[in-house]
Design goal:
Strand content: under 5%
Distance between the termini: 20 Å
Radius of gyration: 15 Å
Order of helices and strands: HHHH
Largest sheet: none
């Protein structure tokens, strides 16, 4: 089993939290489409690993949606967004 890339997951969670409801819905659809389209190309072990990753991602999305619903988010504007993007890039490079 490959190591969990926590920095990448943190970055993805930050990005997901910044999505609108419409964008979150589109992301969920893409994940579901991907699950169905790619199942023909993988072994059982690879499918299991992919399913686990996608379930984890779906859980992160659900957590993000709940946080958004509870008002647990930070707003960004033109002056603060570059700092967020730089922080995400920095975390993903380490």
């Amino acid at each position: 089993m490959s190591p969990i890339h926590t920095k990448l997951i943190d970055s993805l969670a930050s990005i997901i939290l910044s999505l609108t409801e419409e964008e979150q819905s589109l992301l969920k659809q893409k994940i579901q489409q991907s699950q169905h389209a790619n199942t023909q190309h993988y072994s059982d072990a690879e499918l299991q690993q992919q399913q686990e990753f996608l379930q984890s991602l779906q859980q992160e999305i659900a957590i993000g949606i709940e946080q958004l619903s509870n008002g647990e988010y930070q707003k960004y504007d033109d002056s603060t967004l570059p700092n967020l993007l730089q922080a995400i890039k920095s975390r993903s490079q380490h």
